[in-house]
Amino acid sequence: MIGPVAVILAAGQGKRMKSDKPKVLHEVCGQSMIRHVVNAAFGAGVSDVVVIVGQGAEHVRASLAGTPNVHFATQERQLGTGDAVKSAKAVLSGYDGPVMILVGDEPCLRSGPLAELLEKQKSSQVACLMGTSIVPDPTGYGRILRDTTGAFLRIIEQKDCTPEQAAITEVNPSCYVFMAPLLWESLEEVIPSNAQGEFYLTDAPEILQKKGHEVQAIVTLEPDDILGINTRQHLAEAHAIMSRRILDKLMDDGVTIFDPKSTYVDSRAKIGADTVIYPFSVVDGEVTVGKNCRIGPFALIRHGTVLADGVEIGAFVDIVRSGIGEGTLVRHLAYLGDTEVGKRVTVGAGAITANFDGRHKQQTKIGDQVTIGAGSVLVAPTSIGDRSKVGAGAVVTPARPVPPDTTVVGVPAQPIARSKDNDGRPVDPEQPPR
Ligand code: UD1
Ligand code: CA
């Protein structure tokens, strides 16, 4: 491994979530907590990540399977954070560079402060550098003790604090950078710290310092970065923090969002400049929206959907796994699932694709410049050719896909002769439509 590397602790169950799944697999803005922390570590510049798994190990592994440069180490019994880190030793054998240690239940960690931490450790070459944070309410965190000169003394866990120590607002977010050989050396000297016989990682910096190695703690993280998730309430807080960051970034990049409080955009979504999102709209999952689109109010754009430039999605529209071509309008109350729609199409109010045949999802293909009438139903699999029109209330069936330049009406939808073509020119009833 080139390094620096990150070790992310994720072996705990998280009892207070009252969940069958491991805590780190709960999602924040569309992605699991562990995925967010892994992304933050790579974003900060690590070459490799070792995830420590234990409770629900197979699920955590599966959720990250196939991610390049992610390795796993198993902690058989949850004997504390110090023991958890030790589990990574075999995977990192032969590596002697900096090791950043993070915890998997702090999903709002940003890569910026972590990169700063790695950078400072690199330039100072200290044995251990800790990022700390000053928070309004330190409850639950280990506190940072410093001497009268401000130099780091040690970390003290909440339950071991005197009332004076408990009042300290500088806390340990569990973001450390250790030089690998000294990390392993210090962990050998950590002794069980509590009645449960847990090995505390928080003892390692003090051990190194007492042996004459340089240890520093610097305030680098914002309170929002270090929100640790133990309960569903914390999960909702993390969601609010991350959601606001996602929307702020989109606005920085030129997207208009009228009401951030009622708008939700997934952490994986991409949205082009000059797109306008009206209130109460949801972009959920891996979705790409082009430039100059209009979305909502009350629109739901779901995973696997790609909107080209200049697309308008009206009120109460639901779209999933679909591609919508440039300049197409999807009017209010429409539903499109598993549908490819061409350019400059109008999908009328209440038109829907019936994309589920009772067993499988089926595809619908709509060509360019098509008009789909209000309240029509396209029963998939089916297709509508370029420049065709589907009358209001028509039901297009799989047996009768609509060819190009054709107007269909009725149930089931059938072609009718037209007196004018799409350009308003009279049509010769003897000639087949072009
Ligand atoms: C830890 C720190 C505390 C810090 C806080 C928030 C210790 C002793 N205390 O406390 O100073 O303020 O995090 O960052 O480190 N884990 C394992 N294996 C174990 C135990 C824990 O993988 O045997 C994992 C958990 O899954 C979790 C992380 O380590 O992701 C932190 O463990 P947790 O029990 O939440 O520690 P805290 O009590 O919050
Ligand atoms: Ca915690």
Mean pLDDT: 96
CATH topology (fold) name of the largest domain? Spore Coat Polysaccharide Biosynthesis Protein SpsA, Chain A
Bound molecules: uridine-diphosphate-N-acetylglucosamine, calcium ion
What class, by secondary structure content?
alpha/beta
* Strand arrangement, major sheet: 12-15-18-21-24-27-30-33-35-36
Helix amount, in percent?
Answer: 10-25%
Compute the number of structural domains: 2
Largest sheet composition:
10 strands, mixed
User: What is the number of helical segments per DSSP (H or I, 4+ residues)?
Assistant: 8
Question: Distance between termini?
Answer: 64 Å
Strand content: 25-35%
From the spread of the alpha carbons, the general shape counts as elongated
Report Rg. 28 Å
Poorly predicted runs of 5 or more residues: none
Write down how many β-strands occur, each being a DSSP E stretch of 2 or more residues: 36
At the first level of CATH, what is the class of the largest domain? Alpha Beta
CATH superfamily of the largest domain: Spore Coat Polysaccharide Biosynthesis Protein SpsA, Chain A
What would you say the CATH architecture of the largest domain is? Alpha-Beta Complex
